[in-house]
Design a protein that fits this description.
Elements: E1 3-7, H1 11-23, E2 27-31, H2 34-43, E3 48-52, E4 54-55, E5 58-59, H3 60-66, E6 76-80, H4 88-97, E7 102-105, H5 110-125
Parallel strand pairs: 1-2, 1-3, 3-6, 6-7
Antiparallel strand pairs: 4-5
Length: 126
């Protein structure tokens, strides 16, 4: 069982991801913004974190760039469905530059989610 932080502002997406991960016996802490994410990362350690690129008016990638000291041992998976002025290639390049283990593009299959988590857990263990 992994302890996972999910940073996602869309309740439907967060519920779907949480359902799949809980069904696979993982513990989920869900927050909808970067302020709460900072608080959770300061209080607890996580085996993995998922962060959406667009969190309302917040940029999940900027959060990764500006707060790497909070999660130096926590592997991050970035999730995105694209957005205004951002190509998936651009988002992927930024996610890689900021240390994300993997990118998931919405919509994604349950198997892709679990594969990304497996990859992140392996990265965090090494």
């Amino acid at each position: 069982m992994a302890k996972i932080l999910l940073i996602e502002d869309d309740t439907a997406v967060a519920d779907a991801i949480s359902f799949v991960l809980r069904r696979n016996n993982h513990e989920i802490t869900h927050v909808s913004n970067t302020l709460r994410a900072k608080q959770e990362l300061a209080l607890s350690s996580f085996d993995c974190a998922f962060i959406d690129v667009w969190l309302g008016k917040e940029d999940g990638l900027e959060f990764l760039a500006d707060n790497s000291n909070l999660f130096s041992t926590t592997p991050f998976i970035v999730i995105s469905g694209g957005g205004p002025g951002r190509t998936l290639e651009n988002v992927t390049a930024r996610a890689d530059a900021y240390g994300a283990v993997r990118m998931l593009y919405k919509p994604f299959e349950d198997s892709e989610l679990l594969d990304a988590l497996s990859q992140a857990l392996k990265a965090g263990a090494s």
